[in-house]
Fold:
Amino acid sequence: MQPVELKKGVHWVGAIDWNGKDFHGYSLARSGTTYNAFLIQDEKTTLIDTVKEDHKGEFFCNLSQVVGDLQNIDYIVANHLEPDHAGCLVEAVERIKPEKIFVSPMGQRSLETIYHAKDWPLEICKSGTSASIGSRSLQFVETRMLHWPDNMVTYIPEEKMLICSDAFGQNWATSQRFADEVDSSQLEKLLKEYFANIVQPYSPVVLKTLDALEKLGLDIDMLVPDHGLIWRGKGVKFALDKYREYSIGAPKPKALIFYDTMWHSTETMASAIATGLKAEGIESRIMHVKAYHHSEIMTELMDCGAVVAGSPTHNNGIMPYMGSTLTYMKGLRPLNKIGAAFGSFGWSGECVNILSDWLGLFCDEVMENPIKVKNRPTHENFEECHAYGQAIAKALKVKIAAFE
Structure:
């Protein structure tokens, strides 16, 4: 991929990871991803962010196509020091020999502990710091814990451009660079997936950041994330509105039923619970933890106001894949959920209490009297599961009504 001019004198110089399906070691990226970096040509030519080290050849080639000798670059801005954004930073500093490197106060600490940087010409940028690069200026706003402590964004008022690090990104390897050039439904799906698995734990921070940006009154007609497609025109408002919606996390009339099963008893119970939900007008999605990656399950939960977990009892506990999925869910801290547990057992029935305890760690409310069945469910047991689904649906309707 060659450099792409986003605006006059502002180039995308990043890299496309067509085959990178494992994002950060814990989330699927079935559509690949991009590592976006940007070069601004002005009196002081400025590089903003780098790329993952695996893609340094493409990155440095793109840079040289725009500026020729890399030492024609004067400044580097490091909005975020995570290795997929700063993986080439050490080599870039060695080859560019920049006059200044702009980082947040927390970014300075990350440079010391991740890259062991010494004697670099750092400019520490608290929120409100600005720097002139000629006909343009750079304005820095710290966005701590969105999603690392060192995150900041860079606003270029003359271009109405906000380079926003990990916010508003998607994992999508494509030859297109702008959001309005691709299928909008796929784009929204990937925006939600990225938020669900990367940004969701910091939803309160997102809301504060959105409010702070509004208060600053920034005129933005291009929203430029470090992964995926760039938002421009009407797409800017779409992305901002979606992030506000995701961060509020209003409960929705849908239930996620996820489970593991040994001899299909728990599996058939899941289907019976779904019929009870449907009888009350609540949609559901059933996902077997061995058929779906935990990041796919987490993305589905974004559209659900209830989360229903099922497992047989296994060695006085729950099935291992259920434990790992619940651990993942707890870490991402989904908002405004009702939890419910069900399962089967042979000679000891601890599963539903363990599941309920897990759900209690991140759900606002957990249904009482979780349902469990010994060995294989009977017709009467399926009727109980159906009724349990109805009870979950009624509780969810109450929660939705209270939220409105």
